[in-house]
Amino acid sequence: MSKTKETSRRRFYYYTDWAEQLLTVPADLRLKIDDAVKRYVLYGEEPTDREVLYSMFGLMRSQLDRDRISYAETCNANRNNINERWKRVREAAAQDDTNEYDRIRKIRPYTNDTDKIREDKIREKEKDTKKKVATKRAAFVAPTRDALCAYLREKDLKNVNVDAFMGYYESNGWRVGKNPMKDWRATACRWNARNNEFTNNKNTMQHETRPRYEAFSE
Q: Whole-model pTM above 0.90?
């Protein structure tokens, strides 16, 4: 027995007309007919009881056969359509290097404006995704103490205390304010500039206050 026949015999319609008609026959015959239908659908067995054979079972069997044939034809038609569709997809793919959406559009033109809008949205989403991936920053890697020292010597950043810098940012998880640090080199430059400004301001204040103190002491 083929796979199609096996599948079709495990799927069948039990019509409400049958149920209503069976309610009019005696209970023992009703059970025999119901059992005969199930055996015919599952195993293809014909009833041997003449009472069942010449009852409404004959009409039910004819309808079951028609349903099975219709189901098998539908399955075959769907299978052929799928095979034909993928055959055209493979042929189109072999002829050009366009993307999958363009190949599908050549095989199945737009059925309405909704299809075109949907495809345009998919294309835009793909472009945005590629753009984000292309512009995405590299993952931050915290510097080692040696790397920081080498960078400070290279840029002549004399106002950055290596131990203070490393200790501060290691303790807060390498964050600048509430945001994760993106570039430790730029942060080191800011530290140097800020400490340089603080040192200059401190020297200016000391220079301005010393003469006043000396004059007051005299």
A: no
